[in-house]
Amino acid sequence: MIIVMQNQADESAIERVVATIRQRGLSEHISRGKERTIIGAVGDERVFDVTEFERLPQVERAMKIMHDWRIISREAWAQDTVITVRGVALGGGETQFVASDVSSDLAMILLDPFNAPANPYALSGSLNEKAASKKLQSDIQHLHQNQQIAWVRVRDSSHLEAALSSQADVLYLGGELLANRHILHTVGCLNTPVVVCKSPHHSWRDWLMAAEQIVLHGNQHVILGESGTLSWHGAPLRLDVDAIAAAKQLSHLPVLANISQLAHRQMPHEVLLKLAQAAGADVIVV
Fold first, then answer.
1. What angle do CA 57, 63, 68 make, to 5 degrees?
2. The domain 83-285 is classified under which CATH number: 3.90.1150.10, 3.40.50.10420, 2.60.40.1180, 3.20.20.70?
3. H or E stretch including 133?
4. Which tens digits make up the pLDDT trace of 141-176?
5. How far apart are CA 255 and CA 216, in angstroms?
6. Prediction pTM value
């Protein structure tokens, strides 16, 4: 169950809601926004009726959630979440673009310093993460000097420290980390915006549940990322427009579409870009 407090509700009203939740043997999860506080009742919500909470002082509304994801659901918050990074608003209607090329003059750049070929025989030597971390620090410093925003792809939990110490503005978790609960809980304890991508093998339900795990640990700055799903027509990956549309309908979080590596043999890049926008993507990596 989700309880939405009135605008600028005071602490005594919040504590009364929390006490009511605990009296029934459930636990609470409190999400504090700039204007409103949202309280989630975690556990078997069948012990409650929504009117019990709506009668309490300074409660705007209460609702039972039908999905496994709750805090990020549209039922909990109808308006689109807008995440602001160095003055750039992500979400809320205006499409923003991120370049995958570090030499681009776009305002936001996605760096992938820890990328290595999956084939071990393609490596001339082992990945030198120390050198990669040093180069990352230099690249981010250069971007910040040019008033650009640095997005950093994290491929392992060991890369988080390097990304944060280099002052990355946004952390980008690839689909291979969707089921890694350790890293989801770790980024959930941060105050840094994070993109959680859906892997080609996971459903959009798994995707939303991963985002919910991050938010439950306190990080409200979460972006849902779609970077391709399995194709029926021979191309390695295709844009999952259904997942983007479902995410926009079911969640208030911003949605990103990464089309930089997608192989559409019969579709020009410009058409793929329009397809991502039509599906509802708030941010597009090109």
1. 135
2. 3.20.20.70
3. helix 129-145
4. 999 999 999 999 999 998 999 999 999 999 999 999
5. 19
6. 0.78
